[in-house]
Structures are given as structure tokens and as C-alpha cells.
Amino acid sequence: MSNGTTLPEVIRVMVVDDHAIVRRGLLAYISTIPTFNMIGEAASGEQAIALLNEWHTLGRPLPHVVLMDLQMPGMGGIAATEAITRTHPDVKVVALTSFGEAERVHAALAADAAGYLLKDADPEEVAMAIRAAVTGGVHLNPTIARRLTRRMTAPTGGLTSLTVREREILILIAEGRSNRDIAGRLTISERTARTHVSNVLAKLQLTSRTQAALLAIREGLVPPG
Amino acid sequence: MSNGTTLPEVIRVMVVDDHAIVRRGLLAYISTIPTFNMIGEAASGEQAIALLNEWHTLGRPLPHVVLMDLQMPGMGGIAATEAITRTHPDVKVVALTSFGEAERVHAALAADAAGYLLKDADPEEVAMAIRAAVTGGVHLNPTIARRLTRRMTAPTGGLTSLTVREREILILIAEGRSNRDIAGRLTISERTARTHVSNVLAKLQLTSRTQAALLAIREGLVPPG
DNA sequence: GCCCGCCTACGTCATATGTCGTACTTCGCG
DNA sequence: CGCGAAGTACGACATATGACGTAGGCGGGC
After folding, report:
1. What does pLDDT average to in each consecutive run of 10 residues of chain B (225 residues)?
2. Interhelix angle for B190-204 vs B209-218, to 10°?
3. What pLDDT shows up at residue A51?
4. Nucleic strand D within 7 A of Cβ B201
5. What's A222's DSSP letter?
6. Is strand D within 7 Å of residue A207 (CB)?
7. Do B208 and A176 touch (CB under 8 A)?
8. Helices H, strands E: what count in chain A?
9. Contact A174/B at CB under 8 A
10. Residue B179 has what DSSP assignment?
11. pTM greater than 0.85
12. pLDDT mean over A116-124
């Protein structure tokens, strides 16, 4: 808040999304605002990173803000966000996604995203998020923010209560694997795999691995497709 | 093909999508083509239907083509497509979605959609699909079309090989229910439920209900969220 | 009228899954 | 150093799950 850099007279924006239609939509949003300048777009995380690196070596100005879709084939938006915020700390990344899976929000914020927008956002909200990012703030969609706090205050922590190993287990469950499979993958005994599965179910208050798999998908731990 | 009506000098288009950004993107696409005229947009299936009915009673010209997102809260795009093609047979509906779940394609075509676009379509493809729809043709995304034919010719039919009852079973599996639960819901014995489950797994060539649940979600039989 | 697919249902068997309790090792933290 | 959390592992047990064969009733199509 008082941390704020002042707003530059023109804010350079870049869009990363595999859907051309969405890129167009955001371009249309942004070009209506004179202080915003869309300087580039990319259809994948890899492409975005390559473009930023190229600009950097050429001495061209980098975008102030990158609008980053999270759901993309290949390198996901989370990984791309992480890579960008690490190599170009001045570039702020605002996450953009269709649905508000709490897990993704966490992951995005952990990757130093400077905001979290839903795709049904109106132009004003996008503009707000961009301005907030430039001044060092973090904009969260109100619905998301509410859910996030609800999750924080919830007595039974969700996926966050799982240990690293248990998450691995859950991911394998959500790939439809049996306990024996899981044991093989992780080179542990099947009994141990079962212990982990049992612990996961207990923590998530579920009664079957299928329910766990569904929850993992709902929470965005693994992609549905 | 030779079935075709001739193209009107201006094609009226309407967009239905809950994401404002996507609506903007399509508007941007379409307004670049002079023969296309965007005459309205809606954020839900209900809204779209209401708008069409209103125009109809007012004697205003209806759109030639409606671009319809399938994934929407409330009434889904499939149901909206069905309603529109039934009450306004002259209006062609082109389905538009993020991912190509084969199940959705089938459902969309069954609801008399006149095309199936992915959201990463470029402007040319959108234009082609719209023109095809107006002339009575059906445009399918090439990737989708390939998958469809692959599915048709595949020796082991996918979800389509299931009977109505088996689909019901699969849906309940994909909700994380146990055999006993399923039996209760459908008022059949648990043994029968198990018979059905076993048959479903055999037809889908899977070995566990969890895999079946995941497949049901991938294929769009049930929503992930 | 007959046959076939679908829904129903059961028996039996093998295996997978999930629970509870216990226990050893490692590792980080106070 | 002691202690707890995490990961590993086992035994024993109770169900759940899935496979396979069999079978009656029913409704639509030839």
C-alpha cells in the first residue's frame, strides 16, 4: 500500500494465454485505456519466457505486468509465473483463470503472483488488478479472497494439511493407480502406500480413494484432462 | 454443401459466454469482418433465450448464428442450444468450448449445434464456422473431427457403448459413491449395482472405479467442479 | 411368435481397500 | 540432548470391490 511505486505514465502489459480469443478480449480491454499499452502476447509459458529473455538481451523495455493464464498445455502458468518472477523480479505477474480452485490460488501466490483474476472479470477489475500489481499490491478476486479466508479459518485444513509425501500419494490416486502401483512408483512397500492412503483419507475426511481423486481434481492438484 | 442457402449480405451474430473477456475477444474477431454484425451478447443460457424471445416478439431480426459457450453456470450451453434450436429453428448455434471432450461434442451435435469450435480458434476458423452454419453446413474443429472419427471407428466404443443404466452408474461412480450408495440411489440391490459397475469397467477396459470416475470427468460426463 | 439386448439378481471366489495398533529411523528444532 | 513430525513398515482384521457364471422378466424388432 504505502510500499507503492508511483504509477508510470504508461503501463506496459503482456498477455499469456493459449486461447487466441482470450488474448483478443484482453487486448480489447486494455487498448481502451490510454495509460495501458499492450506490448506483446504469448500462447504458452515457454513462449512468454523466451520473449521476455529476448527483450531483455535486446535491451527492450519489459512489461510492467504479465497477465498469465494458469491452465495451459505444456508448462503450466504456475511454473511460468515462478520462472518469470525469479529471472525478472521487476515484472509483476497477475494470474488469470477460469475457475477459482483454492489450490491454484495458493500455488499462484506461492509463485509470487501479484494478483488473481477470474476470466469473467470486467474491464474495470482487470485494470484495477494491473494497477495494483504495478504499485506493488496484490489484487484478489473478491470471491476468491472470501474463499481463501474461509479456508484459512476452517478447522479442518484442506489439502494444506497433507504432508509432501501424502500429496504425492494423492496425485497418484488421482491418476487412478492402485496401492500396488503407487508402491512401485515410490519404491515403498504396498503396506506403506496403504498407510499413506489411509492417512490421506483420514485428513480429508473421506472414505474412499475415488472421493480423494475427485477432490484432488476439484482442488486443481492435478489437471482434469 | 449444395444444400446451401446463399450467404446474406450481412450475417448477424450473437455471443453467449459467461466470461466477459471471451465475449470481448469474439466481438473483436467479428467486428474486423465487415459482413459480420454482432447484434447482441448474453452471459448465460437463460439470458440468451430471454433475449431471443424478446427480439422475436418485438419483430426484430434474430441472429443468423449464435456462438454458444458450453461450460456455463446455471443452464449449460447444451441445454440452451437445444432450447434455441427448438424454438427458433432458423437460428444456427455454434458450440464453443475450451477443451474437446468427445462427450460434449456428441451432446452438442445431438442438440442440433451447427459447429464445434475450440477457444484457441483463430479468427479465420471462427469466420469459417459461422459461414458454414449460415449455409446449412456443420463446421468441426479438425482435431475434434479426427477424434470423433477415431472414436467412431474404434473397435471399443467409448462412453457411447454404455447403456443408459450404465451411464447412470458411471455418473454415480464419478460422484465418489460406493456400490451400496449406488444401489440405494437407484433402488436396486447392491449385487446388481456391482454387476453394472463390473460391466462398465469391462466396456471401458478399466480396472477400478477410480479410473472410471476420472474418465467420466475427462469425457465431460460430469462436471469436474 | 421368437430372439436379443437390457435390467435385474444371486453365488462364489480372489483380491483390493481401508482401519487400528505398533514400531523403527531420520531429521530438524528448541 | 530430547522430542515430535514425517516416512517407512508390519500384522490382523473387516469390508469393499471386481470377475465370472448363471438366470428370470420384459420389451422391441424381425
Report:
1. 60 92 89 91 92 94 93 78 88 83 69 83 88 89 68 52 87 95 93 94 93 88 71
2. 60
3. 94
4. yes
5. S
6. no
7. yes
8. 10, 6
9. yes
10. H
11. no
12. 84
Q: How far is CA B215 from the centre of its chain?
A: 18
> Which residues lie closer than 8 Å to A57 by C-beta, 6 or more apart?
none
Cβ–Cβ under 8 Å, residues B216 and B171: yes
Is A24 in CB contact (< 8 Å) with chain B? Answer: yes
Query: Of B20, B208, B218, which has the smallest distance from its Cβ to A120's Cβ?
Result: B20
| Strand A115-118 with A11-16, pairing | unpaired
- Measured to protein CB atoms, the chain D nucleotides within 7 Å are 5-12, 16-22
Helical H runs in chain B? 20-31, 45-58, 77-87, 102-110, 123-134, 142-153, 164-173, 179-186, 190-204, 209-218
Query: Contact, B142 vs B149, CB < 8 A?
Result: no
Which residue from A minimizes the CA distance to B98? A19
Å between CA of B146 and C1' of D16: 40
* Mean local confidence (pLDDT), A119-132: 88
- Which residue of A28, A120, A174 is in closest CB contact with B19? A120
pLDDT in tens, A50-90: 999 999 999 999 999 999 998 887 777 888 888 898 899 99
pLDDT, tens only, A163-193: 889 999 999 999 999 999 999 999 999 999 9
Measure CB to CB from residue B213 to each of A19, A22, A210 and give the nearest one. A210
Which cell goes with A41?
A: 502476447
